[in-house]
Amino acid sequence: MRYRAALQRALVVGLPVLLAVMAGCLGDPSLTPSSPKPTPAAVTFVGNAACAECHPDIAKSHSQSNHAHTLSLLTHDEAGVRLPPLGKIGSSEFVLQKVAETLTVAIPGLSQETVPLELALGSGKTGVTYVAFLDESKMAEFRMSYFPAKSTWYITPGQEKLAPGSLGKIHSAANAKKCLLCHAVSVPDPVALPERRFFGVGCESCHGSGTAHVAAARAGNYTQGKMESLGKLPARELNLRCGKCHGTPEDVAAAHLPGDVTNRMQTYGLMESKCFQKSPETLSCVTCHNPHENAKTQPVFYERICLKCHSTPASNQKTCPINPKTNCVSCHMPLRKALSGSDIPMKMADHKIKIPEK
Description:
Layout lengths: L1 H9 E3 L5 H4 L25 H5 L3 H8 L7 E3 L2 H4 L7 E2 L6 E5 L2 E6 L2 E8 L1 E3 L6 E8 L2 E10 L4 E4 L12 E5 H8 L22 H5 L3 H8 L16 H12 L2 H6 L11 H7 L1 H4 L7 H4 L10 H12 L17 H5 L2 E3 L9 E3 L9
Parallel strand pairs: 1-11
Antiparallel strand pairs: 2-7, 3-4, 4-5, 5-6, 7-8, 8-9, 9-10, 9-11, 12-13
Helix pairs in contact: 9-11
């Protein structure tokens, strides 16, 4: 009872908003945390290893990408750089402890009470947020997120207005599943720890279930059970596939976000651009990004893509009157602060591809 009362005081209830957009939540804070064992997922998915049997090169490339590492157990072997340091958590009142093999957060003012953290969400490229399951229908999102590259804790986006002693937000089963499906191929019903083979954004996150395809291929029947060819989709539809986790126009409208989130919501930003609107069937996320690899960081890589359309008047596209050959990205897709109202100094490229204001 004492543990349950401590949790009631530590957890708070928020508004139901898609986590990938606003980090909102909904829930009953009166439930005691548990440490659920992995629940077998539906048999409609096979996992990356099955795909690798016939696609080893792509599978190897993908396995080394941030996409593949967006979810991990909070253990030393699994989490790697995403494992935060023990001790006091930033400027908060929380203390991170290790009890047996489990990382736990001590609740302020209740030194004998702890709450376990079970999963790390995020690859570690920027921030990592930690969650714990409360029961079969709730998931708690910890109020503090860790940024490995800076060795710094920040308040988790969307939780800036919570009381300093609040442990975090509780997500309903529906919101928890939406969140986890941007970090795992499949999530059990009722919501619980995904199977280990489904951790991370996998082949089937984008290509759909591979069960029939793999069964046919293993039987030597390569004409049955074919997967959808994403490369043949119209650009708009392909963008919306990426937008499931990178923010569609519908997500922005539903969450009542300001129109300037064209950097944080990349799909929304791209689809708001004149470049896309004048070529809706050809300009997609994969025009510039290979989803099986990490995004390139060299500006010259993207400049070459821009110049395929904007290099000569004969291309029927305008050439830049200021600098027709270089600096396309720094001028037209500048880095802007990603999270307004947050102390997190993270910047993202504006995908609206705008003409700079004079």
